[in-house]
Amino acid sequence: MAVKIPSKKLVSSVISDILSKRKVVITLNELLYLVNKELKKQSFSYSISFNRLKKIVLLMPEIEVKTKKRLDRKRRTLKECPVCRKEIKKIFGKNVFGKRIHVGYRCGYCGYRADLNHTIPREYIFVLRK
Ligand SMILES: [Zn+2]
Predict the structure, then answer these.
(1) Which domain holds residue 110?
(2) For residue 87, is it within any domain?
(3) How far does the centroid of ligand 1 lie from the alpha carbon of residue 43, in Å?
(4) Residue 113 C-alpha to ligand 1 middle, in angstroms?
(5) CA-to-CA distance for 44 and 21, rounded, in angstroms?
(6) CA of 89 to the centre of ligand 1 (A)
(7) pTM over cut 0.85
(8) Does residue 97 sit within a domain?
(9) Contact indicator for 121, 83 with CB cutoff of 8 Å
């Protein structure tokens, strides 16, 4: 049986529906399960992949993406955003002597920020903005 690819608009509306009922969906896997379940009600051959769902949900302005974080003990150099995998920029600040120092990272794409004792997100939490 052929798989039907649901449109981005349909997927977005299903995500909004789910979140308005549940308020918070803890993980992307859980969201994936719920979205697929909902899509199958509309057409049995609909299916969405983890990566496509992630791309769509991260770009929905009405959804706030929070991340459960754990402290990363080692300072590591970030080359890519841990949330959206785009290139990440370094943030510089000034220390007490007016010297420019590297203080953290910021993603210009999804808004992820981290200081140098940065935390790595482990799980996403999706919240529908009011
Ligand atoms: Zn990002």
Answers:
(1) 8-128
(2) yes
(3) 33
(4) 8
(5) 22
(6) 10
(7) no
(8) yes
(9) yes
